[in-house]
């Protein structure tokens, strides 16, 4: 019987395994986006609602701009980036694959930060923290390890 570990990327270091792990998690997030609005609404929670005095906070509706279409679009985008990253995890020494994976994190970071700081479709909290931390960590890690993995 084969061990699950046999299917992990075989390149040295932890970066390929990290990219693989993030790809698998992203595929799960992609499926969630198709099945329910809830997880995507946690990421894109909208601006903080103003609650009139005396009104219980749990009775105020969501300010999330997420629609069924936008959730599915987000799920599709997430699946595409997961596939690119999955290929990169197994081909980490191939410059074009490394660059493509790196760019997926640049786009993700730019997207989430602009939705927070410019467009206001999200705010800092549990929903945004995960994607922001993953994108930032991955970008820094990939940038600092570029010469180790990419053989010109």
TrEMBL record:
InterPro entries: Erg28. One of its GO terms (biological process) is sterol biosynthetic process. Coiled coil: none annotated. Keywords: Endoplasmic reticulum, Lipid biosynthesis, Lipid metabolism, Membrane, Steroid biosynthesis, Steroid metabolism, Sterol biosynthesis, Sterol metabolism, Transmembrane, Transmembrane helix. It is a multi-pass membrane protein. GO terms for cellular component: endoplasmic reticulum membrane. Its main location: endoplasmic reticulum. It is found in: Endoplasmic reticulum membrane. The chain crosses the membrane at residues 100-118, 124-143. GO terms for molecular function: protein-macromolecule adaptor activity. It comes from the Eukaryota. Belongs to the ERG28 family. This is Erg28 protein. The lineage of its organism: Eukaryota, Fungi, Dikarya, Ascomycota, Pezizomycotina.
């Amino acid at each position: 019987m084969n061990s699950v570990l046999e299917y992990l990327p075989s390149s040295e270091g932890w970066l390929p395994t990290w990219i693989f792990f993030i790809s698998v998690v992203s595929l799960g997030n992609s499926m969630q986006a198709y099945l329910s609005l809830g997880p995507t609404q946690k990421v894109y929670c909208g601006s903080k609602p103003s609650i009139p005095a005396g009104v219980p906070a749990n009775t105020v509706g969501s300010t999330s701009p997420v629609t069924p279409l936008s959730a599915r679009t987000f799920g599709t985008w997430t699946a595409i980036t997961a596939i690119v990253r999955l290929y990169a995890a197994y081909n980490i020494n191939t410059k074009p694959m490394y660059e493509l994976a790196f760019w997926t994190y640049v786009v993700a970071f730019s997207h989430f930060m602009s939705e927070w700081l410019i467009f206001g479709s999200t705010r800092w909290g549990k929903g945004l923290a995960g994607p922001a931390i993953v994108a930032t960590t991955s970008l820094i890690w990939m940038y600092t390890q570029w010469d180790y993995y990419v053989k010109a």
